[in-house]
Amino acid sequence: MDVTATSRQSFRASHRVRNISNSATKEMAIIAARIGGCVSLGQGVPSFVTPPHIIEAVRTVLVEDPSSGKYSLQTGMPALRNRIARYLLDEKRITVDPDSEICVTVGGMEALLATVLTVVDEGDEVILPTPTYASYIEQVQLAGGIPIFVPLTENWGLDLEAIRGAVTPKTRAIMLCNPGNPTGTVFSDEETIALCKLAVSHDFVVITDEAYDYIVYEGGMPFSPLSVEEFRRNVISIYSLSKKYALTGWRVGWVAAAQGWMAQIMKVHDATAICAPTPSQFAALAALDGDQSCVAEMREKLLARKKRCCARLDKLNRYFSYVAPKGAFYVMAKYLFSDADSHEIAIRLLEEAKVITIPGGAFGEGGEGHLRISFGGELEVIDEAFDRIEQWLEKTI
Ligand SMILES: Cc1ncc(COP(=O)(O)O)c(C=O)c1O
Questions:
Q1: Whose CA is nearest to atom 13 of ligand 1?
Q2: Which residues make Cβ contacts (< 8 Å) with residue 38, sequence separation at least 6?
Q3: At residue 64, does pLDDT exceed 60?
Q4: What are the beta bridge partners of residue 171?
Q5: Which of 165, 213, 254, 381 has the smallest C-beta neighbourhood within 10 Å, fewest atoms?
Q6: How far is the CA of 109 from the centre of ligand 1 (A)?
Q7: pLDDT digit string (tens) for 275-307?
Q8: What kind of fold does domain 52-289 have according to CATH?
Q9: What's the gap in Å between 211 CA and the centre of ligand 1?
Q10: Distance, CA 330 to ligand 1 centroid (Å)?
């Protein structure tokens, strides 16, 4: 028997899946675990833990209500959808029907994938302003779509002319991360409105990822175009409770869209997950209903960490330049000391300085030549990482 042929046959994964790659974040974490003793500027998770009032609310409901461990309705518990609808109206002036225009999902990630699978057909083009959130690339490819990378401007703004030039009859969507991972950019209302007008006139969809909407360091939350009646057919919006309430492991978020879209997205969600974890939906309800001071406290701490991170980068301005982040907890640091690609630099930093960063090239073409630095970690972690980077630069550059 030809064993090789048999095993090759049994592991023949689909083209769609073989074509996508593991995330650079994961690769760096695996290498770091092998090396040992590394300090991380790579993590996409702030150091905070789930607030006690949320844990307590879930503990109580699990003890007192036996149905809290069962499936909920596919779109999520009615009480949570009603609460989300109220939140969207109060905070973002978005009017949605809680019964037919909200679906609670397994984190923002499932919401994104269900949306991409719903909108994108084989061979369709999806515009990704780059640097982009790396998982969008995989999700578009998984759906059989073609990512079309359009670089952001030098200050990480939307290059509307370039986007206009990239639109073709095959364009189905653009994915807009606002505030941006990995750039920390916050697009202006004008940029978002102009983009949505373009989407309406060419009939493509703007998928807004608002996972970091509450982390803005100047002004209020960014503008949500789903709040505008004329954009409703062309906008699908994704939300996450992961970072806002330190709920990353609970896996809960939602997608909001006009009923016509939601009826389709729901089918993917049902086929994928049936429903978001019910205990996590109770956590989401407690988070939205509860005292919001935990959010303000986390944002204050992130602001202090951002300042420390920028101050440390400023000290190294012979080696790095950067655009100060206006939101989220990432900064793209452009390295000025080497022409090597970002993967090579990130690996060297990891192996020689024992500092984890994420190679900018993982975020699409516009990210090459940069390292993504997260300031989600404690101040001591940020300082330790920069101490090591400084020593490494002095020794090797
Ligand atoms: C831009 C962006 N969107 C979505 C997600 C997914 O978040 P969730 O934990 O809700 O799936 C992340 C997580 O890091 C993210 O950075």
A1: 44
A2: 32, 350, 354, 355, 356
A3: yes
A4: 125
A5: 165
A6: 6
A7: 999 999 999 999 999 999 999 999 999 999 999
A8: Aspartate Aminotransferase; domain 2 (3.40.640)
A9: 6
A10: 13
Judge contact between 108 and 133, C-beta under 8 A.
no
CA nearest ligand 1 atom 1, residue: 181
What is the rounded CA–CA span in Å between residue 332 and residue 181? 9
For the stretch 114-172, pLDDT in tens is 999 999 999 999 999 999 999 999 999 999 999 999 999 999 999 999 999 999 999 99
d(CA 283, CA 279): 6
Nearest to 370 by CA among 380, 381, 359: 359
pLDDT tens track for 299-324: 999 999 999 999 999 999 999 999 99
Q: Which two tokens stand for residue 20?
A: 């996508």
Give the domain ranges of the chain: 12-50+294-396, 52-289
Instruction: Please check whether residue 192 is in contact with residue 225, taking contact to mean a CB–CB distance below 8 angstroms.
Output: yes
- Architecture label for domain 12-50+294-396: Alpha-Beta Complex (3.90)
